[in-house]
Amino acid sequence: KPVGGIAVRAVKRDDATNACVPAFENVTRPVRFWSSYVDPGPTNRPASRAVSVQGQAVGGSDATATVEDLAFGPGGVATIKITYPDAGAMTLNARYDGSSDRGDAGLVMPGSDGFVSLPAGLCVQTASACAAGDASCPTFARAGAPFDLSVQAVGWQVDGDSNLCRGNPDTPNFRL
């Protein structure tokens, strides 16, 4: 599920107090974003399962980073929305590189933070079903008899979803 209101702070160390203070405020700056896997590892990353920032898929490495213009307001804070349509532990990386036309040539501001994305739930299904769900249904299996059951981790589709087995995307990186 998309998560918004995530703060990105542009800060620097104050020379006099060593406190973190805004590096810039009330300006828009281009920030490069890319993601990396923590668990499961990078070899398991499906190409179609990218982290999105502000609705735009970001690259999976510094070399393939995606630029987003962020509006840094009072206190040097910008907010972003992140979506990751799979399960796993991820790192979102960000980097701002100053330029002479913005008056901050040579400034390099890297940052990163980790997050864990979980499935919305589990779709549990058997090979047969009876829509009535009552005594009019045929015998499914005798008590103690084996039967097939599939369990699939699925992602968020909409709030209030009452049927996780219909329309929800799978989360192939989920594991117990």
Describe the structure.
A hairpin with a 6-residue loop joins strand 2 and strand 3 (20-22). The relative contact order is 0.19. The chain has a four-stranded antiparallel β-sheet, with no helix packed on it. With 176 residues, the chain is mainly beta. The chain has no helices and twelve strands.
Protein topology:
Elements: E1 3-9, E2 11-13, E3 20-22, E4 27-39, E5 52-53, E6 56-57, E7 66-72, E8 77-83, E9 88-97, E10 108-117, E11 121-126, E12 149-154
Task: Write a concise keyword list for the protein shown above.
12 strands, four-stranded antiparallel sheet, 176 residues
Instruction: Indicate the multimeric state.
Output: single chain
Structural class: mainly beta
N to C succession of SSEs = EEEEEEEEEEEE
Q: What's the helical proportion of residues?
A: under 10%
User: Strand content of the residues, in percent?
Assistant: 35-45%
Low-pLDDT runs: none
Return the average pLDDT rounded to an integer.
90
Shape: elongated
**Main β sheet profile:** 4 strands, antiparallel
Strand count: 12
**Can you count the helices?**
0
Radius of gyration: 23 Å
Separation of the first and last Cα atoms: 20 Å
Strand order of the largest sheet: 1-8-5-6
Describe the structure in brief.
By secondary structure, the chain is an all-beta fold. Helix content is 0%, strand content 43%. The model has no long low-confidence stretch (mean pLDDT 90).
